[in-house]
Specification:
heterodimer; A: four-stranded antiparallel β-sheet; 12 helices; B: mainly alpha; 13 helices; about 0% strand; globular
């Protein structure tokens, strides 16, 4: 593998699928977090990864990133085996905003420049091309005016856009976003949505872990449902079906049925016929009994 | 006016004072730079632990008539490596492991030095520094180690910053995070070794933390913070050394007190993060 080959392919000419996971198991023997996951995703897709808390959404992203090596199976990113330089240069990553200390004394431009770290390699200093990439990424997310601002002075939505710009500066065609819309205002949500669709229109692929079913249904071209395995993968109208959602969430879910997205929310009945499933322990029923 | 000039000039005629001056400036600069990472990553306890764990190395070098820096550096690297490995395989919590290690090593140093008859004077000079007794070799060794630390901080700036700011991203990008962390521990150990002659094992942590913490109050830029931290560290060393010369008080303690006083003053008057400005801002927003 030459270094030249490791450079990203030009947009629009994808050599191999964005993601290919074959029989991937992650986690410990007794309780794997992901068990025998198979998943192939092409380019140009806006993919929503949904599932209950702790079901393996973040694990799926970390497996693709290569920070969690699978116990079994193979993972390839754009044709490159995960954890290789080629795979890492194909990915742009947006972690959850809460993982960093926003009081850190760096500017917006500094943070975006961090996206160039591994492309530069050790013992190399950023040059004109890197500064250009940073400027372009900031322009793309509409944060050019904030380049020299210290990051603690940003709103939640602005922080998220800085993280997105950093992922763009990484130069990856596959963007992985972990709950990118937590604590983000509606305007920023719309802007981020437009940006992600633009990235996909240019031949990139976006993987977006979210707990917001409604938003996933509205934005995404593909939905991956995760619950310790890949439960289903397909276009929203095909997979956001009551029986699939029940298999994913175990009956505790409030959804907008895809058929009437604009309409009223429908509760999916669980096996006992109660709308929305059994109430979790310690809620209304228990409280009433206690007051008697 | 003449009194001030002679107050400043008088000690400079002595070679031992010139050497001491050079040594405290080196110490202040290195501590202020590396201290930026210690402050931003909340590693004060770790810095304290490493400096205590170096103590037996100093004592062994003394007992075996080795160069002071050889013993200190050997134990510094040993400690940094041990902490690096322990924090990677988490059998016990990192905090506990460091606590056990540094107290045990420090006790080893005390036991070793107690084998010398009439050891209290030596003990004091190790623990609290003896800046006016530095030899030309000490200064050369400090200069060499200081330059190595500075070089590493410049060459690996972007890696050190990324791991400090966003460890998860660093891992995702394939950086060897544990190696960067181990490297930082080694740089901290080397900085402590540079500082031992000036302030001793016990007070090093003050120089690692206080100037950088004061610098953080004056700026929101990382590079500026490093520059200010180095300036404040060297400044505290210089001012403390002069005061100690004229008052005959312990140099190490005086230097640390100057740094502490400067931190206190910064807490009050620094722009943006200072108490006075914050209070004024609050009053304005109330009005």
């Amino acid at each position: 593998m030459t270094l030249a080959a490791a450079a990203p392919a030009p947009l629009g000419a994808p050599p191999a699928p964005a993601v290919r996971m074959a029989a991937v198991t992650v986690g410990y023997d007794a309780r794997p977090i992901l068990d025998g996951a198979n998943l192939t995703l092409g380019w140009g897709q806006l993919v929503g990864v949904i599932g209950p808390n702790g079901a393996g959404k973040s694990t799926l992203l970390k497996t693709l990133l290569g920070t969690l090596p699978p116990r079994q199976g193979t993972v390839a990113i754009g044709g490159w085996p995960a954890r290789t330089r080629g795979a890492r240069n194909t990915i742009g990553y947006v972690p959850q905003r809460e993982v960093v200390n926003w009081d850190f004394p760096v500017t917006v431009a500094d943070v975006v420049m961090m996206g160039r770290t591994t492309r530069l390699g050790p013992l190399r200093f950023p040059g004109a091309a890197d500064r250009q990439a940073v400027a372009a990424a900031l322009a793309e997310v509409g944060m050019t005016a904030f380049a020299e601002r210290q990051i603690s002075q940003l709103s939640g939505g602005q922080q998220q856009r800085v993280f997105l710009a950093r992922a763009l500066a990484q130069g990856g065609r596959l963007l992985l976003l972990d709950e990118p819309l937590n604590g983000v205002d509606a305007t920023t949500q719309d802007e981020i949505g437009a940006l992600l669709r633009r990235h996909c229109a240019q031949g990139g692929t976006v993987l977006l872990a979210t707990h917001d079913l409604e938003l996933a249904a509205a934005w995404c071209t593909l939905i991956v449902l995760v619950n310790h395995a890949i439960v289903a993968c397909g276009p929203p109208e095909a997979v956001l079906q009551p029986e699939i959602l029940r298999a994913t969430y175990g009956g505790h879910v409030l959804v907008m049925a895809p058929a009437d997205l604009a309409g009223t929310p429908t509760m999916i009945p669980d096996d006992h016929g109660h709308p929305g499933g059994r109430p979790p322990p310690g809620t209304a029923t228990g409280a009433l009994r206690g007051s008697r | 006016m003449n009194a001030i000039v002679s107050w400043i000039m008088a000690p400079l005629q002595f070679v031992f004072f010139q050497r001491a001056l050079f040594e405290v400036v080196l110490m202040g600069l290195t501590c202020g730079l590396i201290g930026t990472y210690i402050v931003l990553r909340g590693m004060a306890f770790l810095g304290d632990a490493i400096s205590h764990a170096i103590f037996p190395g100093v004592v062994i070098a003394f007992l075996w008539h080795l160069n002071f820096f050889v013993g200190a550096l050997a134990f510094g690297l040993l400690t940094a490596g041990t902490i690096g490995v322990v924090s990677r395989n988490r059998q016990v919590s990192e905090d506990t492991a460091i606590g056990v290690l540094f107290a045990g090593m420090f006790a080893l140093g005390i036991v070793l030095i107690s084998s010398i008859r009439g050891y209290t004077a030596d003990l004091a000079s190790f623990l609290f520094g003896e800046i006016l007794g530095v030899s030309p070799e000490d200064v050369q060794a400090s200069l060499l180690i200081g330059l190595l630390v500075l070089g590493a901080l410049i060459l690996f700036h972007k890696e050190l910053v990324l791991v400090a700011f966003d460890r998860e991203m660093a891992e995702a990008m394939g950086l060897p995070v544990w190696l960067v962390n181990l490297g930082l521990l080694i740089l901290i150990a080397m900085t402590i070794v540079v500082s031992l002659r000036a302030v001793g094992n016990i007070l090093v942590v003050a120089m690692l933390v206080t100037p950088a913490a004061a610098a953080r109050l004056w700026t929101d830029r990382l590079r500026v913070m490093m520059g200010l931290g180095a300036t404040f560290g060297a400044g505290a060393g210089i001012v403390g050394l002069w005061i100690s010369y004229h008052t005959d008080l312990a140099a190490g303690g005086t230097i640390v007190l100057v740094a502490t006083a400067w931190f206190g003053l910064s807490l009050l008057v620094a722009p943006r993060h200072g108490w006075i400005v914050r209070r004024a801002a609050r009053r304005n927003s109330d009005a």
